[in-house]
Fold these 3 entries.
Entry 1:
Amino acid sequence: MLPKGWPRDSGLFVHISAGIAILALLVARVAWRLVDPVPPPKATEFGNWMGQWLDPAARIAH
């Protein structure tokens, strides 16, 4: 939809740069999660009140 010339070139540059930045952040986030695993869940008053079905439901929803 952009006219030929510098507007189209600039739009393409921004689009590709944003995609590469998002990809780099995604790779960094996955690597971070592999190195630093999720901490174990802590028992809370609400969790004790709701019962054992809440933990699997929370994992699925999260």
Entry 2:
Amino acid sequence: MTAMTQHVFRDAAGLPAVETMDGPAAVRAVDAFRLVYAETFGEPPYGETEADVALAFERFHAEAAHPTFRAALARAADGTPAGMALGRALDRQSGWWDPYIAPTDRHRAFYLMELAVRATHRRRGLARRLHDTLLRTTDADQVLLSVHRAATSAGAAYRSWGYRAIADADPWGIGVHAAMILDRAAAG
């Protein structure tokens, strides 16, 4: 696989710049991703602890090694991290998505693993920009995600972006999540 070129997308309205990254570049920026993740998912309804964050970033390094891993990182004008999005293409590997995406269709599906915006940058369209910027890195027909049922604002945002809920699941034993899918082929 060839190295992914990093792109920085700036917004004329003064929103943070959004940079796309492949796995190696994301690993180099791990502290920025960790800061956004810890702050955002430490809030209700998630309540993740430092131990949870440490475990998540053990997985981050493993996921970033996947050849299709992509990330988007938003930084404020002063360089501080403002938000992030992470994802990768599915492969034949088994996961919580088994009941929803057949192994023969997984090569056409992208898994949106995380989308988070720090509190001081919310309600200005940054989550949507991160989402759309990340999805520009893939030509997958479908995008799959899970959102904690108690995260009602996030669920509402995903529905407004065209996602539909396909099932309720508790794949990690941390609360019921809605499995959601965006059919890009139908929308485009």
Entry 3:
Amino acid sequence: MNDIQLKRTTRIGFSDSYVDGEIKKCEYNTDFYDIIIDGNSLYSTFENYDYISVLGQINEDLQKNEIKKLLLESPSELRAGQYFIFVCPMCADLGCGAITVSIKREEEYIIWADFRSENHETSQSLNMGPYKFLWKDYLRIISSADL
């Protein structure tokens, strides 16, 4: 069984990152919730991509929509079973790239597997997971990101 937590974090703007052969820039400081699994920060794990998690959006409607997706109450706009978890801090568009994960519920458990780096043209496995969380704990933690 894995442990999932959220931690309020700020991505400091004006940083350049070299990702997939391109320099990526974001000029704004951006607050969001880092996703911590078994004490390990996913934001730190994915730092070379310069993405932020989908949790902690400044727009309340967008935030509620992302929470519903992670709780499997709303469908993802991606292929079946894949959900955004980290996105571009400027636009959150798949064209800039994103980290996605397969999310499935099995009785009292939720399973995150098949972590991928994706954009409109490519999808590459990140060889992480799977992670298995107790549904009641997952529900409480993900719901706590509501603004």
